[in-house]
Amino acid sequence: MIPPAFEYLRPQTIPEAIAFLQQYGDEAKILSGGQSLIPMMKFRLARPGYLIDINRIPGLSYIKEEDGYLKIGGLTREADLENSSLIHSKYPIILDTARVIADPQVRNMATLAGNLAHGDPANDHPATMLALGARVVAVGPQGERVLPIESFFVTLFTTELQHDEIVSEIRIPVPPPGSGGAYLKLERKVGDFATAGVAAQVIVGSGGICQQVGIGLTNVGATPIKARKAEESLCGKKLDETTIAQAAQLAADEAEPSSDLRGPAEYKRGLVKELTLRALARAYERAGK
Amino acid sequence: MICRTSPEVGGMGHSIKRKEDLRFIQGKGNYVDDVNLPDMVYGHMVRSPYAHARLKGINTENAKQLPGVLTVITGEDLAKANLAWMPTLFFDKQMVLATGKVLFQSQEVAFVVAEDPYIAADAAELVEVDYEELPVLVDPHKALDPDAPILRDDREDKSNHIFHWEVGDRAATDKVFEDAEVKAKVHAVFQRCHPAPLETCGCVADHNAATGRLTIYLTSQAPHAHRTLFAIVGGIPENNIRVISPDIGGGFGNKVPIYPGYVCAVVASLTLGRPVKWIETRSENLQSTGFARDYHMTAELAATQDGKIQAMRVKTLADHGAFNAAAQPTKFPAGLFSICTGAYDYPTAFCEVDGVYTNKAPGGIAYRCSFRVTEAAYLIERAVDVLAQELKTDPVELRRKNFISPEKFPYKSPLGWSYDSGDYDAAMKVALDTIGYDALRKEQQEKRAKGELMGIGISSFVEVVGAGPAHTFDIAGIKMFDSCEIRIHPTGKAMCRMGTKSQGQGHETTYAQIVAQELGIPAADVTVEEGDTDTAPYGLGTYASRSTPVSGAATAMAARKIRDKAKKIAAHLLECSEEDLDWEPGKFFVKGAPSKAKTIQDIAFAAYTNMPEGMEAGLEAVDYYDPPNLTFPFGTYICVVDIDKGTGEVKVRRFVAVDDCGNIINPMIVEGQIHGGLTEGLAIAFMQQIGYDENGNVQGGTFMDYLLPTAVETPHWETGKTCTPSPHHPFGAKGVGESPNVGSPAAFVNAVVDALSHLGVKHIDMPIAPWKVWNILKEKGAVN
Asked: Tell me, what's the ipTM?
């Protein structure tokens, strides 16, 4: 469990970090919370020659509502999300997600931005951010780009981020009244990656009509999956047992799980259906509060 | 009945706090990896990525060129010293470093030694090994097929068959089955699992060329036996070897064998003249060291229509991996598996076991288990439930009808054991009352009517522990006695040294309590020391729940020898004859005149200052205890589960564990042992497996996939007890550390099967992951 030797760089500003990225190219990796990178290095599965530790860059850790968005800084830790009264009161889906990631020690270091930037379909935040319609703010040599989450995940471990870009912020539209969301994850034990996970966010209008819905799936494909057909089936409909069951089936159809130690593909598909059902029901319940 | 001492003395029955915990909870323990010696260097093992491959060549040149690398040892190097192979604990041999070929993934291939662990890890990557892959044998059922690859071409016998062992009366058993009114049969695989102690294995080998002494700091559950084996195998005079087992972070059987890394570290220290530290990584521990179980079992029960069990027949295939490194007494190739007839009274049984080689890690160690007792208890307790299903009778009723009744003890079991004592129905009754069995059955009926799934699982296990009597039990020829030496200092304080070795069991407290009980010296005044072969009396170590039955007995016997001498001194001090003296813990007094007394502290002082004429000074004794029989702890466990039909998750709602381990030394420690063992049993039942894919790649070789339960997964344990002392043990104790691991898997599985029994489910193999339950529900049409 000893990684190969590497150079350790500690930039004080984002431009300095970007300069390092440009200088060392593919040999460089950003060290944020280290939730995934450190274990991969210890197993020698990742062998970066240069580790750019961005943890000392000031001003990147915050949770605030501004200009119609919930803004979460690039270095905001999972533990910060868990302890934020704003998250507790208005974003229970994010709380659901943060508290089922790894273990408390890891969550003290792990960041939401890293959870997205790693591009691992087994990570939990991608599904939730898909459900919430988040935007990822990336800073590179040419300045800032705002990337919609829907097209952020390209393939396994690959995102829209360019090699010389850093995630500085995540923006989530402030949910209007009548919104509710939930993230449900089945794991073999606490701290495990999801056998499957489902995030659902709904905006319910008068008469229980679903005005907007986002559904994201964890660890049932090469990328985090936005269950578009399931979402479409609910839009403009009244949320009830029948429509939710229909949507759950569509979400299961959209999943592309593979068999592994967490279970056969068929089971995971069934799990997506069940968890979608429950996540939508909980989201709907929360929307009414 | 054990005489209770005052809380200040803290003898048997007092829940005094564990003396060792003060240093553990303050981070002041001293584990092998805490040992740092001047000039120490570091070893790193190069391991095979393949499960079966010919070794065509090893190039160590690039590794040796790396600055800081001191040596790279290969199997060919060891062969020159006749050390490429070492004997296992069970009539086989095992490669220290591979020569010719490798036989399992992660097998030891080369040993790199460098100035620091970082260089050693880098250099290990530079060792180039040329492998030619060979056909892989993973499924033990295919080991004896004519076209199966022969794995062990080093053996004369060109077969993958290791042993056939049988016990009982085959013909009589077959006859009972032919005539039986009812038969029940179950195929149950007890999956390969791993003890996964939180501290991995490791050592520091320190050969001093000037003195000729070799000191080995070792994660060893049996330091004395290991010293002898190092002497025999390495040809080093035994007086020149000192094994020190410092604090150990869990063993559970995993630290009984000698591993190649230890031998390599010793060889490297002899070669380099410097101390060599070698510490396993987590993956190395899970992938290459002693696994447990991997028993593929079939059990049949014959019974009358009214539910009287008449006979049991067992056939088992044992997967031992690449080498038979099972750690067990030499006369027992399948350990004490023949305890499989259980808590039930019937005259006839037959049991046979065949061991085979496969391309998997070697082992077959006793994971918190007295040599295959866990497999046996699981098998009979599953089989009884299947029989209850066949008979359409309640599993509790069936058990109670067949229990060996208390007046039949000592009970001769059909496979040859002599159970010392037991009252199985008493434990059952406590368990039933505690859990409220009848109400639960009623609730189950109501739930079923609503389509909800709940189950109740019972396990009434019998253990056989405390190996063992010298006439039958030895490991590598050494009889399985164990020892205690007690020295009473002039001020009345005591030092106690043992042949056993705690790995977390609390020996420093419990042995002190035995001394407190026997001599009345407060437990706080008794220091217990284990693990240093230079100072401790010889013993076979701690595993198989043998410490209390054997070394605990030795402690009582040594204390009684001291008391005998103390009595002579007391008579001298009180100027009376020995016959005039009575004893109560802590003092001798003149019969009828209790104020005329001498405390054990007075007597200890006199033993050095004022002894009777002709008596040698000092107050010490040593005892090597040969137990007349094993002890047979037992209990009834009842588990209640609820099943989530949507996800297949099983939630343990309640778990009642009623244990009978005879007289108890420290109730708090016993309860802690039970909590720990139940948690391991939970993990085995629901989460853990060292699996292999068809190419022999380990599935579950890290804690990512070999799942250790946390407080989140662990239910609330409800413990209870009955007390049936062992009639032959000096203070009636039986041993308890392993009971919860032995007894609980069947309770968990029986509960899940019970929840699904109305769908026609009779058995589910462990680990019962949610997907297995979901698949069954799907197959049975219970979910869409």
From this structure: 0.96
